[in-house]
Amino acid sequence: MRLFEELQLELEGLKERGNLRRLSQIHHTGKTIEVNGREMLNLSSNDYLGLTCREDLREDFLEELAKEKHLFTSSSSRLLTGNFTVYERLEERLSRLFGTEAALVFNSGYHANSGILPAICTADTLVLADKLVHASIIDGIRLCNGKYVRYRHNDYMQLERLLEKHHGEYKHIIVVTESIFSMDGDEADLKQLVALKKRYDNVYLYVDEAHAFGVRGAKGLGVAEEYGCIEDIDFLVGTFGKALASMGAYIVCRQVVRDYLINRMRTLIFSTALPPVTMAWTDFLLQRLPSMTAEREQLQLLGCQLRQMIVATGVSCPSTSHIVPLIVGDSSEAINKAVQLQRHGFYALPVRPPTVPEGTSRIRFSLSAAFTSLELEPLKLYL
Ligand SMILES: *Cc1c(COP(=O)(O)O)cnc(C)c1O
Questions:
Q1: Omega before 354 within 30 of 0, i.e. cis
Q2: Is residue 83 assigned to a domain?
Q3: Distance of CA 24 from the midpoint of ligand 1 (Å)
Q4: pTM of the entire structure?
Q5: Which residues share a beta bridge with 235?
Q6: Within this chain, do residues 266 and 297 fall inside the same structural domain, yes or no?
Q7: Is 5 a domain residue?
Q8: Based on the domain organization, do 133 and 162 belong to the same domain?
Q9: Residue 57 near residue 288, CB atoms below 8 Å
């Protein structure tokens, strides 16, 4: 069989199993979206603080932009001619905010996670990763020379056993987790992870705060800020494309880590840097992030409200955050539920295996501070 016929056949198989993915035509209308002519509250976006629909921010930024004249392309990797002062300004602001020696900005969270581990791991490194870490981390691990083991989700007893068993065999062990997990909306216990790592002198901690940056902590720096353990995390990563309503990612770290990544991280070295205008927008928002406490509080309130609505239906809910799953179990049931919700003006999507374990198909709600409690309330009629 010819290649393209094989591909076509595989797509047909996906369609039969109800797993074919398509790009849908969407009109964005602030906190609502319009799909197939129907306007719905967007419960599937990562715009957690509701910043994408803030005209005031856009207008202020454009005013600044008129003065600064940032370019719309960097035309090169940062290692050649693609480095601009606005990049360094942003990195200085990040390291000042986090109180770390250094910060380094990347094109996306995917670039960050698929590039950092391969750069720092050698054949003597063992990576221990939570079973539910993001695909970009898995891809990074796959590009590493060393070995890896995935421990059961948030099972620190198992992690402890693995550390005890292996810490003598490897030169370094890197424990990798997210802080808020994207499918269950539950959290890693960073305090406990820090305590575990401190028992060994060759264990390091890598935490991805993609869903927590902007949202948690007094200044919005994430769960590590909330629990006062920023300095105990060796590789603290977050992204700008979710709550911060921009594009890109960062690591806050020691100077030596930054210098090393600049020399060895392939996704940084061999990719055109983000446009300076995008960096300027990120920096503009980052300056305002610490004062966005009203948005963070609203998001927490909405999270509570939705979790209570779900628990009231008799279904248990693992979430402790603004990402809230309604676990229905069966894939076709999840699809039906999503169709029903959309019919009533709530744009939520089903998540099915292999993205989540077999038998735990769900509707994944992700909230935005732009919503009011009243707008969310009628959702309970359709859960
Ligand atoms: C979204 C996400 C990423 C990828 O970030 P992008 O900037 O969208 O590439 C990485 N890690 C986690 C945990 C994410 O949720």
A1: yes
A2: yes
A3: 21
A4: 0.96
A5: 206
A6: no
A7: no
A8: yes
A9: yes
